[in-house]
Write a structure and sequence with these properties.
heterodimer, A: 332 residues, alpha/beta, 12 helices, 11% strand, globular, B: 244 residues, mainly alpha, GMP Synthetase, Chain A, domain 3, 2 domains, three-stranded mixed β-sheet, two-stranded antiparallel ribbon
């Protein structure tokens, strides 16, 4: 919980990872390229005081995660959103066993979401049923640019993808977090296009679709579909740190999301360990739309409370202490 | 020297190659890492991008456009374009060397060439340019409302860079360039219903914010990735001055 100026904020970090990108876990050059890309994101968008040494960034482990999020980061509950990247890393990028064990140890603080890949077809569907039971899944993270064999990505409206979503619905896995990357099949399309989210959101109205980094780099397309589909939500992974490097751009993103998507469907996340949550939470609570941007209304405390935690808490049935609630509860 | 002249013309030619996603020249973005030309007409260009994981289709598009504009230069005998430090560098560089085209380069991963992808981003670039022109007009004319933009025609816009940028984007889409043509139109040149004008403007604004934000992020990442090297502007500066 984070308290400031007489207000108490319940914080849910809706997108975190426990990764291992050390050289011994890299399968090939792409493993190094991938973590180097993350590290450049981290260095480029963090305040200087928050930049980690490269070695620590490769692997930080459970203990540091608990410290960065809960001891120092003001976070009350966090949700693992793993990317496996099996084509780049021996035991995967996201460390399933270590993260799940940690979530079992701290069920009040951590939720473990797993992932699937529809290109595993029937075998993957069978695995999904086992995973749902073992991990008590409420949600999954789908990275559509994952490489596998000759294929370097998929779309959510592929036929097998539909079967996985049907199974998720049947198993009560309600929250589908979507992360778009640079590759899909076919490669001549825009991989960041979110039109497939539009289709599945229409066809699976019982599921919530949380589009990570709020559709960036296609913010406008995301906003447009979110106005049509009430079950599409914005995850703020990657968008948050602009609060430091480009506060005016951050103001525009938040204001556009509030206009198109609304205050009940935006979720805070640090994307840990891309960035650490402490400074992001503190900056966001202090943040205001610059006065000269008079097209946009100022952010209210209630909006900040919903975005920082109440919206994701409602989606994941995480109990919120009464003192953190807003008069009008967040709706999902 | 003959090679200096060719190099200058080569750099100028590369100014016409745009990052389709960011709608800016690759020379301004710093994506041209080096450019060499010799007296035999051999031109070698190295391109570099903000991350190894920039979309391979856009990477290919910029590299092949670079090769096309350089090959068209009088006096260019052999043109080599190399994409450095990308996850698909090997595939793309082989394809460029063989002039294999997009489908030839990526094989079964590509179903069509990249014309539709290009068209998508031409439409976005137009929306952003239109929003810039109209928002500025709103700021300079206090009585003008969002709804009033329905009646604004090209002839109402001042003769300046913002308007010229809009005219270029309209030309790329084949939209009416005449002064009587309405400014606020969709990708096909059609006007929205008057009551939809504020929403259309708002959507164009989200497009503009997205493009500008991406461009800024990409520039920043490029600087983070290659901190110790001169930017394109610096490394090519003497030649730029010679041009101007």
């Amino acid at each position: 919980m984070y308290a400031k100026d007489g207000e108490t904020y319940f914080v849910v970090d809706a997108h975190i990872a426990l990764w291992d990108a050390r050289p011994e876990n890299q399968l090939n050059i792409h493993g190094k390229q991938f973590i180097d890309c993350f590290y450049d994101y981290h260095r480029n968008l963090s305040p200087e005081s928050e930049v980690w040494p490269y070695e620590e960034y490769l692997y930080y482990g459970s203990e540091r995660l608990m410290k960065d999020l809960f001891a120092e980061g003001h976070v009350d509950h966090a949700i693992f959103q793993p990317a496996l990247l099996s084509a780049f890393y021996r035991t995967g990028f996201g460390q399933t066993e270590e993260a799940f064990a940690l979530a079992e140890q701290h069920p009040d603080k951590l939720t473990y979401n797993h992932c699937w890949d529809p290109r595993h077809e029937q075998a993957g569907l069978d695995q999904l049923r086992r995973d749902a039971e073992r991990f008590h899944l409420k949600g999954v993270k789908l990275y559509t640019a994952e490489w596998q064999g000759d294929s370097r990505g998929y779309k959510l409206d592929d036929p097998w993808s539909y079967r996985y979503l049907e199974t998720a619905q049947e198993l009560g896995i309600k929250n589908i977090h979507i992360h778009k990357g640079p590759t899909i099949r076919p490669l001549d399309r825009d991989a960041f296009d979110v039109a497939d989210v539009d289709k599945v959101a229409t066809d699976f109205t019982d599921l919530n679709f949380v589009v990570e980094h709020c559709g960036l780099p296609r913010l406008e397309d995301f906003c447009w579909i979110a106005t049509q589909e009430p079950n599409v939500h914005a995850g703020l992974a990657v968008a948050m740190p602009f609060i430091h490097t480009r506060p005016r751009y951050f103001a525009q993103i938040i204001a556009e999301l509030l206009y198109w998507v609304g205050e009940d469907r935006i979720q805070f996340s640090s994307d840990y360990a891309l960035w650490t949550p402490r400074w992001l939470v503190e900056r966001f609570v202090d943040f205001q739309i610059p006065e000269d941007m008079d097209d946009y209304a100022p952010l209210t405390v209630a909006q900040k409370k919903k975005i920082l935690g109440l919206n994701a808490a409602a989606m994941y049935d995480i109990p919120v202490p009464a003192e953190c609630a807003v008069t009008e509860p967040a709706a999902v | 020297m003959q090679s200096d002249d060719l190099r200058r013309r080569a750099h100028h030619a590369l100014d016409a190659v745009l990052d389709p996603e960011l709608d800016e020249p690759i020379t301004d973005l710093g994506f041209v890492h080096s450019l060499d030309a010799d007296d035999t007409g051999r031109i070698t260009v190295h391109l570099r991008l903000p991350t190894s994981f920039c979309s391979p289709n856009f990477a290919y598009l910029m590299a092949s456009d670079a090769k096309d504009v350089l090959s068209a230069l009088p006096g260019a005998a052999a043109v080599t374009v190399v994409l450095d430090d990308h996850h698909d560098s090997d595939v793309i560089n082989r394809g460029l060397a063989a002039d294999a085209g997009f489908r030839g380069t990526f094989g079964p991963e590509a179903e069509q060439d990249l014309e539709e992808l290009r068209a998508v981003f031409r439409r976005k670039a137009h929306a952003a340019a239109m929003e810039r022109a109209l928002t500025r007009l709103l700021r300079t004319r206090p009585g003008l409302t969002d709804e009033g933009l329905y009646d604004v025609v090209l002839g109402d816009l001042p003769d300046d860079d913002t308007t010229r940028a809009l005219l270029r984007r309209r030309a790329a889409l084949g939209l009416d360039p005449r002064p009587t043509a309405p400014v606020l139109v969709d990708d096909h040149g059609e006007r929205p219903r008057p009551e939809d004008v504020p929403l259309r403007l708002r959507f164009a604004r989200a497009t503009r914010i997205s493009i500008e934000g991406n461009a800024h992020f990409c520039r920043g990442l490029l600087r983070t990735r290659y901190p110790d090297e001169a930017t394109d502007h610096q490394s090519l500066a003497p030649h730029r001055e010679a041009v101007s």
